[in-house]
Amino acid sequence: MNTTWTEQQLLQYVSTIKPPNKDAFKAAQQHSDQLTKPPGSLGKLEYTAAQLAAMTGELWPDLSKRTVIIMAGDHGVCDEGISAFPQSVTPQMVHNFLQGGAAVNVLARGAGADVVCVDIGVAAELKHEQLVSRKVMYGTHNMAKGAAMTRAEAIQGIAVGIELVEELYNKGSRMFATGEMGIGNTTPSAAIVAVMTGLSAEQAAGRGTGISDHMLAHKIKVIEQAIQVNEPKRNDPLDVLSKIGGIEIAGLVGVILGAAKLRCPVVLDGYISTAAALIAAAIVENSTAYMLASHQSQEQGHRHALSSLGLTPCIQLDLRVGEGTGAVLSFHFIDAALKLMQEMATFSSAGIDGRNDQ
Hints:
By secondary structure, the chain is an alpha/beta fold. It has helices at 7-14, 22-33, 44-56, 89-98, 103-111, 151-170, 186-197, 201-204, 213-230, 237-244, 247-261, 271-283, 302-309, 325-343, 347-350, and strands spanning 66-73, 113-121, 132-133, 175-181, 266-268, 291-293. Helix 6 packs across helix 10 and helix 11 (247-261) crosses helix 12 (271-283).
């Protein structure tokens, strides 16, 4: 991996991200209107198929090779007692992913997706033949007392995501999903959402892994303290990411930007992924055109974050497990959207009379 990405290199890279193909979007909609159904009656399935055409520039792209990328990293803010689980769970869950025993592994097998687990910032030494080791740091610093990362570390985290997507693309992957693992990571995610959307810490913070009312009140205070101590600048997304973010969130920013650069759909998972999406969108607005929101999690700030991005979720299942589970489940929805467009008969081919008002 290139270990010397500079801010100038990053900005040059993202400046080449192109807007979606409007002609392909229109062609997909026109085809959909000729299918044996009332126009628009398949709702979001039709719109998603048109989005995929616009992203890829292909009417019905082959997205059969797909990968969920799980970025794993620890958080110094866990020192403040904001999680129901100890930080030791992060490396333990990484091993679970690598052994194929986590929820995301089960769902990925059902969706025909590869799972790639990346150690970008776990606060432990990890070794496994299937682990992608791209460690930028051994966990972030405690954002309640100072910046979580340096600006250079945040940029390097983004670079990890970009380069990994490029590697996987060269191996055939054409659709990506964002996954993550990092005990305590709903706290920096809520802080990012609060700053980038204007929500209060109380509105942005949720229960994460299932904390009590008392811990939630404490978590809100920690987020408020982190924002007050660091004074992140909303108009400078790299400043926000480095001061109150997470290294695995930085990696996900890179995954999103890398997918956008390659004109590949990137399916966002839950709250942590959407916090990363807010940063990516602030770096380059065009990147939102390549994002698909999989679901709306139980984290109360998630709805506001998705709305800020102009995204609506594909499914609603009250998930809050993270890992990329919602994103992988949405692969089935995406497959359905494409199959309907490819396999349904048109009025003409089926010999069925069309609408009288056309």
